[in-house]
Amino acid sequence: MTLPKEVKEIIAALNKAGFEAYAVGGCVRDFILNREPYDWDITTNAKPEQIQKVFLSSVYENQFGTVGVNTHSKDEKLKIIEITTYRVEEKYTDKRHPDVVKFTKKLEDDLSRRDFTINAIAYDGKKFVDPYGGEKDIKNKIVRTVGNPDERFNEDALRLMRAVRFAIQLGFIIDPDTAKAIKSNCGDLVAISKERVRDELVKVIMAKNAKSGVEMLYKFGLLKHIMPEIEEGIGVGQNKHHIYTVWEHNLLALDWAAGHDYKLENRLASLLHDVAKPRTKQGDGLNSTFYNHEVVGAKMTVKILERLKFPKKFIEKVVLLVRYHLFYYNVEEVTENSVRRLVRNVGPENIDDLLEVRIADRKGSGVPKAEPYKLRHLRAIIDKVSRDPISVKMLKINGGVLMKELNIDPGPKIGYLLNVLLDEMIDEPKNNTKEYLIEKAKKLNKEPLAKLEKMYKIAQAKTREAAEEEFKNIKKKYYVK
To answer: What does the pLDDT look like over 391-420, one tens digit per residue?
Structure first.
């Protein structure tokens, strides 16, 4: 095993100046596992001001003894390497931050404050310093806290989630004493900021075996402090078209999404697409129904993701996928016109993502084929109609042309005219020519503004109603409304 040149040079420079220095933490763990580290951290007995004397190209702007050194490396992961003075921490009143940070001269003291044994190993390129058996735990694939697990989790309650995350990312198991402490301290997670919880959840969801991660969060009592709505599906049976409970189905949809490298928003939409079924269920047994679960689910998804402080645009995307995951498509029944309206309603930029969620939904139901002929046919139709006008930007004229040809000023009338023209083009895309649209616009321009506004609203409603019509047949088929 060979350390990167930049890490070696920093360790050598500190040694030359009379100080100890070691690579430490997750980078050493990944190094032992032959995984490429996300970043590299170094610990030393040199004080921050001494570190800065050794490295002129450095920055020290915190109270934790961490100096950032610019190595000028071409590798972004090695461009800035953080060097931290050996330290110990005292009391964690808020279960998040140490009340007191003190520098120490002993490496073993510094390693004793770290979360898990696998992250408490130091390496200088020649020897490992491993006072807590981290190498053995890596070999045996065990996540275990350094010392007393209750003390480690009381210091920083986010470690409760980190234990789960490391286990699923690395394919490890959690030590029984550590697992017991997670369960008994799970309620402390509420003390952690939603942003930090969100970031750990994202890492779990983006793991290859995300399903196991969510199951583990539930097993340890953590999920109810993150996404309690998901737990509502436990034990909730569906109808004759489903062989799994709502909980099982949602997890299996996530499992498919994670196993096929879906991006984050599509994974979350796969997990949350049926989150409202327990709240909308009527009846029991083979003929139970879940009226409007996609609408209620979209509203629940907004609250869940807002609570976890996801960005607004991201939330909008996931909500859209949850809301429209139940679109209807039957080769014999659906026309190109209806597909155009579906694409317009969802947005052409979201169609591929919607199809991914639909496939995850299907696989989560236990069906044999992820993408049957119907969906492959739909892709072909979408590709075809995507060349047709489904937004005003795709019309062969624009507002500027209308103002010039009709000799009118900027105002709401321009928008009304363009949208009314678009409504016709969705039904008759062959008429999308500059000549035809200008002549049609001239006729429409003679109508009062109030009538144009009414026509515009009818066009908007028509698109929404057409999208709802897409859902109607499939809702009947699957006992939803």
So the answer is: 777 788 999 999 999 999 999 999 989 988
